[in-house]
Amino acid sequence: MNLSRFDTSLLLLPSRRKIGADADQDLIDKIEKVQEKIDRINSEIATKNASLQILDAATGTILENLVSEDRLESNRRVGRAQRRGGANRPRGGLT
Hints:
Elements (H helix, E strand, L loop, with lengths): L2 H85 L8
């Protein structure tokens, strides 16, 4: 049995653990950075979603008002047309 070889391999184990621990810490740091980016993107999405909901509500209100005004104008036109049409009809039956 070669003891010098055995001793050398034992000396390498702590350094391998150190390298492994450093690699683990690097991986943990990378994961944390990615998680921070994900959180930031999620926050931006939430902000934009809230803005879109506000715009959607405003658009709905505007469309409702436009449709309502269009119906009112159509009703006015129909009323005027009926009044004009009624003015041309004879009154009081047969003459």
